[in-house]
Structures are given as structure tokens and as C-alpha cells.
Request: fold
Amino acid sequence: MQMLLKPFEHNWQDFRTRKDRTLKTVSDFGYEKYPEKGKYTARIKVIDVFGCDTSITVEINI
Reply:
């Protein structure tokens, strides 16, 4: 299996406001559209209102 390495690009984001404090933790982006079964790498990045960011990379088996 040949993997194409692409630069990080976000496909989904969510945010909270003062009036709506909920934060959606499940995407409706349609991640079932991976080209084939196998192991993929996903990165989750969070940026707070002060601009501080943190991220984690996880392996996903489809």
C-alpha cells in the first residue's frame, strides 16, 4: 500500500461561544470516505482563545 503524504489540512472544526457552551466532539464530515481499509494517522489540534495550541497524533484502523 502506497501512502501519499499531504501537509496538515483541517476538514472540520467547532467552537464555543458565550451563549452556546456546547462543543461538538463528533464530526459529521464523512470520514467513512477513506479510499481503502487500513491504518491511517489523524492529528487533533485545539487552539484556545489566547492562541495557545496543543495537538495529539493517533493511529486509526479502518
User: Anything to note?
Assistant: Residues 35-61 form one domain. Residues 16 and 23 are 6 Å apart (CA to CA). Strands lie at 39-47, 53-61. The radius of gyration is 14 Å.
